[in-house]
Hints:
The chain has 374 residues and is α/β, with parallel strands linked by helices. It has 15 helices and 12 strands. The strands form 3 sheets. An 8-stranded parallel beta barrel has the order 3-6-7-8-9-10-11-12, surrounded by 7 helices. The chain has a two-stranded antiparallel ribbon with strand order 1-2.
Amino acid sequence: MKMTLQPKLGGEVSRFGLGCMRLPTVDGKPDHEEGVRMIRYAIDHGVNYVDTAYMYLGGESEIIVGKALKDGYRERTALATKLPVGMCHDASDFKRIFEDQMNKLQVDYLDNYLLHGLNRNSWKNICLKYDVLSFMEKLKAQGKIRNICFSFHDDLDAFKEIIDAYPFDYAQIQLNYMDVKHQAGLEGLAYAREKGTRTLIMEPLRGGALANVPDEIGSILKNGEGGYSPVEWAFRFLIDRPEVDIVLSGSSSMEQLQDTIRIFSSAEAGCMTDSQRETLAKVKAAYEARTAIGCTGCRYCMPCPQGVNIPGIFSTWNSASIFGNFDNGRRQYERMVSRGEGQDNCVGCGACEAACPQQLSIIENLKTAAEQLS
Ligand code: SF4
Ligand code: SF4
């Protein structure tokens, strides 16, 4: 496992950080036993950054991580979780949720504590309004957290505003070869490092889209220098950049985890050649020509008060567009409509658009999707 020196985390940390939002499930419920096995496998194979959050896996991710970190595993791991600021209505919620998290995780302290999924609104209306930074500083002074951090979904200006407002230890941003100019993007990444804030990367595979590529994309990647798998290309794009400190990825099976560990054990900063960068530029152009909408499936827009399955419709629309298979897409959309999840139920209230970290014009795009899928 290739490592990176992270003084704020006490030394060498693996460049692959295990995200615990997509651990395996059985019958729709998190499989605790397999989750613990995977987390311990990762740690035993050199991964020493483990990331979870209050809301992951319906609230069970922190419990699974807590179980996995028993028997000496906590001492070998930098542990991160996140305060769901969007669920906080006043300052008392910060304390209540933090205590709940520590009980679930069964640990004495956190290495990184992140304000979860900040955007311009939550920064102003919750973090600044209820002075969350004083709360975080108090936790730090008490030794309950080591670093004050945030994760982010909004535009570059909002990112700079937040970075400029406080000397955060780490910023967690969405980045992959498709999103270089999206949200914080590469400019935000460089800006954070200039300000002394270290970087954690999420969505390296863009919600799995960069792993399951259509034939046209697959053949560009296969013919590129190295002939890597789509997943390896996506990880190498990030590993190549020295300004990227840690790349988070969530594995939903042991096989995926083993493959990720293999990639992060063989590639390091500066691993890409000019010809490989050109290959990814070609892939990006080919994708951009095919994708209907840049929905990552994060579900921040859900639940829709009218029952519209927004990410489901966009995912079906994107799959149909990318794979050129609208017959299948129409059948899937028909089933959604029959369950009352179709666009026909949308009343245009706008609640989803206010919550969407990608700032998508959801209402208009739902109409277009419905037209093409009907
Ligand atoms: S605008 Fe439509 S899809 Fe969005 S939350 Fe309102 S009803 Fe649901
Ligand atoms: S529409 Fe926006 S909020 Fe909803 S799943 Fe897609 S990216 Fe996330």
